[in-house]
Amino acid sequence: MNTNHIAEAAHALRTAELTRTSIPPLTETYPGMTVHDAYAIQVALAQKHFADGRTLIGHKIGLTSKAMQRQMGVDTPDYGHLFADMVQNERGVFLANDLISPRVEPEIAFVLKSPLCGPGVTAEDVLSAVDYSVASLEVVDSRIADWRIKLEDTIADNGSSARIVLGSVRVPADNLDLKALSVRVFRNGAEVGQGTGAAILGSPLNAVAWLANALGERGVTLEAGHLILPGAMTASAPAGPGDVITADFDHLGTVKAEFRSSDETPA
User: Fold this and answer.
1) Confidence class of residue 23 from pLDDT cuts 50, 70 and 90?
2) CA 2 to chain centre
3) Alpha-carbon span 6 to 10, nearest angstrom
4) What is the largest CA-CA distance in the chain?
């Protein structure tokens, strides 16, 4: 893809997000699009967010489970940018029509107390750099029609990121068995999934190490104070008007995401 194509794709994704109108897969619009192209589009899209006054607060990691990697036909995770206006605390309330096709994933989020920059970052380095762990729900939303995505599509679309709900219980990561830490997910009171931290590349610390090293190749550092979402512990749960998604984490408490119709006002 040339520079004009990258700019066109970033504009299309930003317009889709603002108008809540999905677009065809970029991999169909631009045959031969590569992962390198996709990250270039993501960076161009992030620049548009910065120009809109949005503030970077961290990164998310996707495709960290073997099941999702098999589904997408890849053997590596991907990442996206997180912005301050994505975040709500503990009980997120969203208007469903502010999104296109939201899905919800439980994650063990981390906040850093010191920077991480690859290459060579290890899981032990990550543990030393983490200030605390906190329960979270990531609301993902594809600007690509009907989630008809390939790896390059979701990378370009900022890892399909949309919203974040953070819990209030903050626990030092070295006080937790992150591999064994479990979660149960409910939609409107009915259980729809359960999993552990081991689903995230064997440990969420491994995922953050991968991120630090991948960003390091591009000259980017994970900064102190930044939020990191290391990947989903379960399959994502679809959400629509009237749905309440609840995640009960061992040791980290409970977080909820409520989706209201357009004629309701979020509390």
Assistant:
1) very high
2) 27
3) 6
4) 51
Neighbouring residues of 51: CB distance < 8 A, sequence distance ≥ 6: none
Candidates 81, 117, 126, 129; CA nearest to 220 is: 117
Phi, psi of 265 (to 5 degrees): -105, 125
Q: Are the C-beta atoms of 183 and 234 separated by less than 8 Å?
A: yes
Phi, psi of 178 (to 5 degrees): -65, -30
Q: Tell me how many degrees the CA angle 182-183-186 measures, rounded to the nearest 5.
A: 160
> CA dihedral defined by 115, 120, 121, 125, rounded to 10 degrees?
-100
Distances (CA, A) of 27 to 9, 33, 144, 156, 157: 10, 6, 10, 10, 12
SS3 call for 266: coil
- Listed in sequence order, the residues at least 6 apart from 111 whose beta carbon sits closer than 8 Å to its beta carbon are 130, 131, 132, 134, 170, 225, 226, 227, 228
Question: For the chain, give me the number of helices (H) and strands (E)?
Answer: 7, 13
The DSSP-derived string for 37-48 is: HHHHHHHHHHHH
Rounded-to-integer distance, Cα 205 and Cα 202, Å: 9
Encode pLDDT of 61-114 as tens digits.
999 987 777 777 788 899 999 999 999 987 889 998 899 999 999 999 999 999
The reply to whether the predicted model has a pTM over 0.90 is: yes
End-to-end CA distance of the chain: 44
